[in-house]
């Protein structure tokens, strides 16, 4: 099918947040999250991590973690033991320059991995065999209008959505479950330096982070309904919760609450912006450059604590 190009004028589609009282309403979240499990340490062994980045949780509770410094994906079982490794590095790739960034897995087992250095999206089978390369300049790659892919997620339609920070687009890819070839794609334009993207399989809502710049554009989180329209903007108004400094990891739960890992000069933290009410910090201690967030089927939150070279799991509701 032909690709569909959608232009979204953010000034026309954004509904500004409504006024709320100082009380946190409509959310069952605790005042702060508490850690229930931590695993991994710095190294290159089978169970080690080196600068873990993006993380994805499947509906069965497996974790797929981008082990950036080791140029691989670590896959854990329900007990969070490493059971599989996907090592994309080949003859044309050097682990020193790969810079793998984010990962998502659909219900058919296809694994999508973004690579900042190659400016491409790599698609693997469930067994770790490279099937397709979208964007980039590597031999065999397919031009899918990707210049600088960063975040990737999977939607309730089982499509992969890729955020391109350079083009200012979100690209939805519907792929063949066996070959990974493109069946259909949709490109949505009009975003300002989109970085991470997350989807809720229950509600169909998505969240995308936009990076600020030196010209005065401030970072924010946009919440999108399934038709791609922006329905909320988070992180820019102190009256509605913490103002974002540098958003990284991102996820959205079935209640519409948005979780984001935010870096500041003096703090690295995880914030929550409930679907109604005022946002607040969930985790403020013992994090060093958290890069990825995901939600397990039981509702627990997974954080890839990059500079501490480990994965942490929290209960926040």
UniProtKB/TrEMBL annotation:
Residue ranges of the NHL repeats are 36-79, 244-276, 286-317
Source domain of life is Eukaryota
Respond yes or no to whether keyword ATP-binding is given for this record: no
Q: What is this protein called?
A: NHL repeat-containing protein
A Pfam family recorded for this sequence: NHL
Q: Which PROSITE patterns match?
A: NHL
Repeat as a keyword of this entry, yes or no, is: yes
